Amino acid sequence: MEIVRTEKLTNERWVNLFVRVFRQDGQEGRWSFASRGDGTPPPAGHFDAVVIVPILLGKGRAKPRLVMLREYRAPVGDYIYAFPAGLSEKGESIETTARRELKEETGLDLVEVKHVSPAIYSSAGMIDEAAVMVFVTARAADGYKASPEGAE
């Protein structure tokens, strides 16, 4: 398959629509997709976001617990359950992104990164966003009380 050209269709802040024209077996085709970048194929090792799978360490005899969020998502028009996740800032490492997003979304402190997946594409037919899954242990600070944002 050969990419002939990519055309940008929108000019939004967080994600834009593109059409990629390609040639395969002498036939030309078009593929519409969304991208957080400029529409060019990302380099190997690139990631846009982290999906954090946090295990909250129990205090005393409390058992460790899996942490998930309940948050409103406009595209589905309802609340969903999801792992904490977020976009990487320019130049930020996977661990730094995971630590920041976990704190922002849950108020929990990242204790240890247990495993990082290779980049995954959850909807590669629709968007070129690459995410890594970061499996971590987390701990609540003394006096911790969750204070999620309005949609969480």
Explain what this protein looks like in three dimensions:
The protein has 152 residues and is mainly β. It folds into 2 domains: 1-41, no CATH class; 42-152, Nucleoside Triphosphate Pyrophosphohydrolase. Helices cover 9% and strands 43% of the residues. The protein has one helix at residues 94-106; strands at residues 2-8, 16-24, 27-35, 49-56, 65-66, 69-73, 78-82, 85-87, 109-116, 131-139. The strands form 3 sheets. Strands 4, 5, 8, 9 and 10 form a 5-stranded mixed β-sheet that branches. It has a 3-stranded antiparallel β-sheet with strand order 1-2-3, with no helix packed on it. A hairpin with a 2-residue loop joins strand 2 (16-24) and strand 3 (27-35). The mean pLDDT is 92.
Summarize the structure.
The protein has 152 residues and is mostly beta strands. It folds into two domains: 1-41, no CATH class; 42-152, Nucleoside Triphosphate Pyrophosphohydrolase, CATH 3.90.79.
Topology:
Blueprint: E1 2-8, E2 16-24, E3 27-35, E4 49-56, E5 65-66, E6 69-73, E7 78-82, E8 85-87, H1 94-106, E9 109-116, E10 131-139
Query: How many domain units?
Result: 2
Give me the number of helical elements: 1
Query: How big is the Rg?
Result: 19 Å
Q: What is the average per-residue confidence, as pLDDT, rounded to a whole number?
A: 92
The tally of beta strands, per DSSP, is: 10
Distance separating the two termini: 42 Å
Superfamily (CATH H level) name of the largest domain: Nucleoside Triphosphate Pyrophosphohydrolase
Instruction: State the low-pLDDT regions, or none.
Output: none
Beta-strand percentage range = 35-45%
